[in-house]
Structures are given as structure tokens and as C-alpha cells.
DNA sequence: TATGAATGAGGGTTCATTCAT
DNA sequence: CATGAATGAACCCTCATTCAT
């Protein structure tokens, strides 16, 4: 079990580890810079600098600005997916109100990446394909949860609702950026609205 | 009362008319390009080309990319304002459901400029001042209508509701861009949600 | 001697007069703007505006920016020539010191156009030909005066001296732009130097 | 003590060396183009082309046209300063005539950059600050030498003389560009004038 | 003939991307 | 494989000049 640097088998492992760290650093910096400046105004050079990476190295990992944006979007999608999966498991035994709150809370937790993802989606960052996939995953996950939470909900209705619900969650994010003087009231109102939406759907389907 | 061609008053008229047409063409093209690409990715050159204008002429009318964005935003604001004013006058004698529908319909009517305005607002497009003003006008107008439609509504609550409602109308716009296969169902759902929102507010305040 | 506007013979005269005024106004504005901004930074549009002329009219009189600069240079040359001619006639009976002072004074009188002419000459305004001609005229005139003032001066020497003297007068202009705190002393010094130059030449040739 | 190619210390050397060459080439081209066309008419594109540099590279080294002009001016200032320092050390034991000649010779040595500096100073080239600093340094250095050369010279008088002297040296440069047929005679005349200026000052102060 | 809207070449500058080291 | 200097297409904007009215 020698760790001599001449051992070819183990030689790449530290490198791989370093690579992983590099990628992580780049992605963090990417989220930061894209969030602050938007897709177009963000520069690869700044992302490289902020992550302590040489520009050439950055391009080894992400061959294109768009590729980086895509990866970031994918990562965000993964986070959301994880959140949704987790949420789904907690749904049994939750009231619809609590499910609604859980959606909102999840959105607020994703704060650090939120506006960035929206920026990339809206502004045209990420290839159209990536965006489509992202949307699909998101909608599927939300629809799943809705089905879980409202047993009698028809699949088609769940799909429709998921789209609407996601738009509302987007609004949650937008509202979280408002001046603090009104933010609290606004968030409460949004929370109330989401609850109402789910509850009413439950009554229609379940009652 | 001759209209001879030497009449100086009439001499400039064609010029002014052409100018108006130019400006209109540019603004139309601006809305298109900004919508498609977002503020940063949109290029003045393309806007000029798309409107059949020489780049120099474009700059005669709009001395800056930002100035063009501002003008476009202002135009949109004007349209929205007009819509809101009109809506306000029709509110007396409307049920809350119909008011809700009217909001949604207004949004759908503004279609040709919708996503563009959203792009400019979300991105760095247009000066920050212009954006703020736009938001203020919009919120004020919506809040006014809400007060009109729900007499007992406290002003503070109207303000909060207006923000939420506007976010929902933004969602309407987003939904109107979906694939046509689901669009109809989605719009119906959104419409229902908006109705529900207003009605519930009416019950809280009015009942 | 009717002045009716229908009299075809006299009809063009007022026009000519107006034309002359136009040209004068343009040239005045040209001197101003070229002086303030330098040749390149000066714009035909501003010169037109400042002279109350339509840009199209400006181009009728001066078909090119360079043509305008040339005309301005020519005008300046004319002024200088006039000054020199006048000076020449006063030379008989003047001491060399007074001639030197007269040169300096003439330069200071031309103040309103001075730096402008230098700018156009140095910066590359005016065609090379025009510049050459200007130089020639100037040198010839100065040399003439020198010959007049120093009777025994050989023609060749006069030529050489004229070039040097003109450079010194250029320095006078430069110095006249210095901060006022030192300007007076500087001008006195320059004046002294010019006197010394002429006097010493007089002694060499005349003594 | 191997100089293997993995030696990091040596690895960057060639790069730095190339960088230095690049910068030098750019500056040379800059001097050329600015001299020929003046500050405004000079284009970064031409400077890049003339120095065999891609436009992007030029901007890596000099982030602005003005920055390039400033650097060029600074370089010239440095050269002048060096020349003046050297001259100052040689002054003890020199006659005033030889000091005068030394000034003129120094100016002629700086030939390769001369008219360029004048162009940048007269035009809007380089930031106003840089220009002021340059003038100050120049005047101070010349005044120093004058004090050294003419011991009894009052400081105030030295200051005034430095300004006048510098203007005369500027004339030297201008004259060095004349047609060769007269250049020699002109230079001799200028040389004579400068000598006379210093000598006369020496007599006033010293005698 | 006078006017000024229209034109478009060209200028300074940025930044995604490549490739020699 | 890492590095960062080098590249050049493309952007926003200006202004001399033209020409339809």
C-alpha cells in the first residue's frame, strides 16, 4: 500500500480529487457571477479568477460558457430534484397546508441559487434543450408530489397544476428579493395563496 | 388656402410622418429582438436591420441602447396603464370573478409586448430608475382597481395583493408561451386561480 | 431704383450678401470650434449649429471638413499677411527693438485665431499643400520686414532668421496660454529675447 | 542545478521576454503613428497592425488609447529626465556656450520621439494630469541645470528662463524636420540663439 | 437653392476561446 | 495536464457626407 508518487495506479486519484474540487469551486463561482451580473455580463475570466482557476483549466472542464451554464442549471435541477424527492417522502401524513408550506420553504432554501437559475432560464442561458429537460424534471417531480398529497388527483390535472404551482414558486423567489419592509407581508400572502391553491384542488378532487 | 408645395407648414409634414413610421418600426423591432435575445444579447445592429433602418438613423432617434430599452418600457407601461385605467372604469358592477378574468384578458391582449417587458425588467435592461417607476405605476394601478373591486379592502392589503397579483399575471404570460397542447388547460387553471385569489380576498374583507 | 423682390437683376444681390454673411459666420464658428476641440474632435455639425447654418448649407460653401480648415488657414494667413504688410510700412524709422516688439504685439493681437492656426498646422488639419503655402507666405513676409529693418542683411540670412523668428513667435503664443501668475514675466522674457535676437543680427550685419 | 524545462523559474522567462518585446514594439509603433497622425487621428488598430500585434493583445498591455499615450509620454519624460540628469553632472566646468549646445544636442538625440511628444502635449493626448506632470518635471530639470550653470541666477529667473528655453528647444525639433537644404543653416542659427540667450543671462546675473 | 434626415464606414473596446509553453 | 498570453469577431456608438424634399 505504498503511496509513492511513482505508483501509477494511485497517481490519478489525487488528481481526480483535485479535479472534483476545482469543478466545485468553478461552479460555485459560476453561480455567484451569473447571479450578480446575469448570463451575458458574466465573463469566463471573472469566474475563473473568482474560483482561483486558470482560464485554460476552466475551459478544460467546461468547453463553453454555455456548457458551464448548462452544468449549473443541471446542478440546480439536481438540488431541486433532491428537494422534491425528500419532500415526497414526507408528504404522507402531511396536511395540504403543510405541503404547500413545504414547497415554499424549499424554494426559500434554494435561495443561494434561485435567482441565478431564473436568470439563466429566462435570459437565454443554457441551451434550449437543457432548459426543456430542466422544466420536464421539475414538473414531473412536482406533479408526483401533488399526486401523493392529493390521492384522487387525476394525472392530467396534476400536470397542469404543477406548471401553475411552479410559476407561483417562481413568484416566491421574486418576492424574496423585494425590499425588506414589505417582504414579510408579501411572503405570508404568497404562502397563503399557495395553501389555498392546494387545498382547493384537494377539495375538488377529494371531497 | 392653397396647399401648394411651397407651403412651409405642409412641407415638413411628410418628414415628420416618415419619422414617426421609422420610430414605430424601430420600436417594433426592438420589442422583437429584446424579447428573443434578452437585453444584453440583443444588438443595436440587428434591431436596425430588422426595422430596415440604418444604424446611424437608429441612433438619431435613440441615442443609446438603454434609451431604446427605456422608451420601449415606457411604451409598455403606457399600454398597461391604459389597460388598467379602462379596466378600473368597468369595475363597478362587475363580479370579482369577472374582474379577475379581465386582468387575465388584459395581460393576454398585451401579448405582443409582454415577454419583452419581462425580459427587460428581469435583466439589466433599461435604467434602474425606469424600472422602478414602471413597477410603481403598475402596482399602484392594480391596487387601485382592487380597492375599487373590493370596497372594504384596506390600502395596505391592496398593496400587498397587487404585488402578488402581478406575479400571477406574469405567470399568465409565461403560460401563454407554452406548447399549445396544454396551453388552454393551463390558462383555464391560471384564470381559476386568479379568480379564487380575488374572491377569497373579497370574502375576508367583505364578509 | 425699385427694391421690389421681383426685380430679377437685383434679386441675386441680397443673396450674395447673405452668402457672404453665412460664410463669415461659418468661418467664425469654425475658428471657435477648431480652437476649442482641435481638428479631429471638432464636428461639422457643431460648426454648423454654432453658426446658425444648416449642415447642408455648410457643405455647399465648404465641400469638406478639410476644405473648411484650409479656408480658415488661408484667412489666418491673410490676416498675418496684412499684419506683416502693415508692419513693413512702419519699419522705416523704427529701432530694431521696436520692430521686435511689434512682431510680438502682432502675434498677441492675432490671439483669437492663434492657437487655432497652430492646432490646424500641427495636428494635420489642412492639406499639406495649404500648409506649405502658408509657411512660405509667412516666411517671405517676415524676411521682407527683416530686410527692411536691417538694410545690410543678406537675403539668405533673412530667410534663415525668418524661420527662427517665426518659431519664437509661436512660443509667444504658447506662453500667452500659461497660468496668469507667470504669464507676465514670461512674456517680458520672450519679448526681451526677440529684441536681443534682432539687435544682435543688426550688429552682425550692420556694424 | 538542472535547467530542465520543468524548472518553473525559467519557464516564465521566455514569456516575460516576449511580453517585453511586444510592449516595446507597440510603443515604437505608437510613437510612429501618434507622430504621423496626431493623437485623435491615430487609431489603435493601426498601432496594433504596425507593431504586428493583435488588437486584443494591444489592449491587454494598454487598456486604453489614453493609457498608451500616457505610457509613451512617461517614457519620453524618462528619456528627457535621464538626459537632463546626465547633462547636469557635466555642467560644472562647461562654458555657457557649451551648455547651450548640450541642450540642443540632447534635443536632437531625442529625435526618434520628439515630434510625437509635442503632438501629444499640444493635442488632447494623454490625460491632463500626465501632461502637467511632464511639464513640471521638464521645467524643474531645466531650471536646475540653469542654476548650476549660472551660479548667481535667482530661482525665479531660472524658472522663467526654463519655460522660454524649452520653447526654443521645441523650435529646434521643429527645425530638424525642415528640408535638408536649409536645415543645417537653421540649426546653426538656433544653436547660436540658444547660446546667446544663456550667455546674456549669465552676464546679467554674473557680471 | 436650402434643408436636415439618412447613411454607413470606421473607431475604441470587450471577451469567448485557443494553443504554445 | 496546467497555464495565461494571444487572437479577432463583434459590440456600441460617432460623424463626415449625401440627397430627396
Strand content of chain A: under 5%
Report the uncertain regions of chain A: 1-11
**Distance N to C terminus of chain A:** 66 Å
The number of helical runs of chain A is 9
Tell me about the biggest sheet of chain A?
Answer: none
Structural class, from helix and strand content of chain A?
A: mainly alpha
Report the strand count of chain A. 0
Rg of chain A, alpha carbons: 21 Å
Largest interface: A-B, 32 and 32 residues
Multimeric organization: homotetramer
Secondary-structure element order of chain A, N to C: HHHHHHHHH
Helix % of chain A is over 70%
Instruction: Determine the mean pLDDT of chain A.
Output: 86
Shape of chain A: elongated
List the helices and strands and how they pair.
Four copies of one chain form a homotetramer.
Chain A: H1 8-41, H2 44-50, H3 55-61, H4 65-90, H5 96-109, H6 111-123, H7 128-149, H8 155-175, H9 180-206
Helix pairs in contact in A: 1-2, 1-4, 1-6, 4-5, 4-6, 4-7, 5-8, 5-9, 7-8, 8-9
Chain D binds a DNA duplex (21 and 21 nucleotides) through helix 1 and helix 3.
Task: Outline the structure in words.
The structure is a homotetramer of 207-residue chains. Chain A contains 9 helices and no strands. Chain A is mostly helical. The first copy, chain A, starts with 7 loop residues before the first helix and ends with a helix. Residues 1-11 of chain A have low confidence and may be disordered. Chains in contact: A-B, C-D. Chain D binds a DNA duplex (21 and 21 nucleotides) through residues 5, 11-12, 14-15, 18-19, 22, 43-45, 53-57, 59-60, 63-65.
